[in-house]
Amino acid sequence: MPADPSTGDVLEVRHLTVEYDGVTAVDDVSLRVARGEVLALLGPSGSGKSTLLHAVAGFLAPTSGEIWLQGRRVASAERAEPPERRDVAVVFQSYALWPHLNAVDTVAYPIRRRGSGRRTARAEALDILDRLRIAHLADRRPAELSGGEQQRVGLARALARHASLYLFDEPTAHLDTHVRGVFLDELVVRREASGAGGLYATHDAEEALGLADRVALLSSGRLVQLGTPQQVYAEPVDLWAARLTGPASVLTAKVVGAHDGGASVDLGGSVVEVDSTGETPVGDGLPLLVRPGWARLGGELRGRLLAVRFRGPHSDYVVDTAVGDLLIREPGPPRYATGADVTWTLSRTWALGAAAPTETKRSLTELPT
Ligand code: ADP
Ligand code: MG
Fold it and tell me: DSSP state, 280?
């Protein structure tokens, strides 16, 4: 099915493969971005995020596969339209600012190109600079700005373009937390107002989960999983996906009974039922994912504290248990010291099976508390 305005997709990537001299950087990736949607590309360095963005922007041609923007095919192995023919705004890691333009003229430029008058463009540009907390730098040229300030001008310029698709390549990598928050809020407001879509590459799981409507996990150029932030966090397809998307403990619980779609597992003195469509024979260990908030101190299982860390709003406890090391996160200051004997319990777990990586077969198990 072609992407077209009636389906609401601003971008459709179909079976896209991009190679550099025999190195496959993007490997048969298919995805869509709907109007008003932000899709995060989450993957470690070298996983193909930048290559995918460059192909969508038009700086690289597909080796095979197709790219569609708003219902129009803009790239295939045979023919690729140049970047200026694509209605896409790009924020890459390096901000190529014009050396002769000051900040406000830089940001006003795309607004004037849209046909706004000089005064309107200047006012809108100042407004964007103000929201990114750099209005006081409006009259400075790049040479008079720090690296971080130049980045903010680059972001402001991208926001000033009213494109139908924004591409971001780790744009907040060098921003301080506060400006990053302001920028991300601004991004959300913009796309809600304009219906533009966004494709946002990052290696930072917290950022991807916090900002995107859906998240695509990339490993060595391949799409490993695509889902909402809640799905990729709570139901990762495999151990690699689990570790990429946030802090994860993996307990190895012995299977003591198996039945259709589930298994009984021993957590070291307490037998619980988990959903698991993977066929794990009785007697074998079943890897169980536990996120830090899915376990708590107190309960029927025993352990000993290997480490306790005060983190401000919450405390982290690493518990040595009969089924593996377990990270527990609880609000407030530490209640116990390292070395203490404690008890614990799970409120939730997710069986990590050995099914094919793109199939989400295993389901989430809610344990009685
Ligand atoms: P990411 O942005 O996720 O860090 P990239 O898209 O930059 O990943 O890189 C994906 C793969 O392609 C890596 O193996 C990288 O070494 C390779 N690669 C990137 N750019 C080039 C290039 N210009 N020539 C050859 N190989 C490249
Ligand atoms: Mg990159």
Answer: P
Distance separating alpha carbons of residues 244 and 369, to the nearest angstrom: 28
Strands 364-366 and 348-351: antiparallel
Express each pLDDT in 77-130 by its tens digit. Answer: 999 999 989 989 887 766 678 899 999 999 999 999 889 999 999 999 999 999
Whether 356 is in the pocket of ligand 1, judged by its Cβ within 6 Å, is no
**pLDDT for 200-231, tens place per residue?**
999 999 989 988 999 999 999 999 999 999 99
Q: What is the number of the ligand 1 atom nearest to the C-alpha of 43?
A: 3
Q: Which residue has its alpha carbon closest to ligand 1 atom 15?
A: 46
Contact 8, 34 (CB under 8 A): yes
Establish whether residue 25 lines the binding site of ligand 1, counting it when its CB lies within 6 angstroms of any ligand atom.
yes
Using the atom order of ligand 1, give the atom closest to the CA of residue 45.
4
pTM of the model: 0.85
Q: Tell me, in angstroms, the distance from the centre of ligand 1 to residue 13's CA.
A: 19
How far away, in angstroms, is 25 Cα from ligand 1 center? 6
**Residue 258 CA: distances (Å) to CA of 165, 268, 286, 311, 324:** 48, 17, 11, 40, 22
